[in-house]
């Protein structure tokens, strides 16, 4: 696997962790979840910046945001009991399909 995609994967995971703890920080009123949020977002942006050395910005951002949306929705469902209705699931499926199309068929994505 290309190092840029490893950075991008780490950026996605740390962003999802940071967003999960943002909910748990209760508006930055709880110190530990707040600290995890700030450190997580900093790590995510650092890794995203490293990925952008190789992956075009539009492609990297589409993958980062699309995968992040799907993963944080799953975390919200599992950890916070948030409901996902049919249109939400369909939309996330379309986002995931878009990420696959970019990676498999786009000449813009490094292979």
UniProtKB/TrEMBL annotation:
Chief location bin: membrane
Protein's cellular compartments: Cell membrane
Family the entry assigns: Belongs to the drug/metabolite transporter (DMT) superfamily. Small multidrug resistance (SMR) (TC 2.A.7.1) family.
InterPro entries: EmrE-like (IPR037185), Small_drug/metabolite_transptr (IPR000390), Small_multidrug_res (IPR045324)
Record keywords, A-Z: Cell membrane, Membrane, Transmembrane, Transmembrane helix, Transport
Protein name: QacE family quaternary ammonium compound efflux SMR transporter
Lineage: Bacteria, Pseudomonadati, Pseudomonadota, Betaproteobacteria, Burkholderiales
TM region positions: 6-22, 34-53, 59-80, 87-109
Top-rank taxon: Bacteria
Organism per entry: Ideonella paludis
Pfam short name (any one): Multi_Drug_Res
KW Nucleus (keyword) present: no
Topology class, membrane: Multi-pass membrane protein
Keyword 4Fe-4S set for record: no
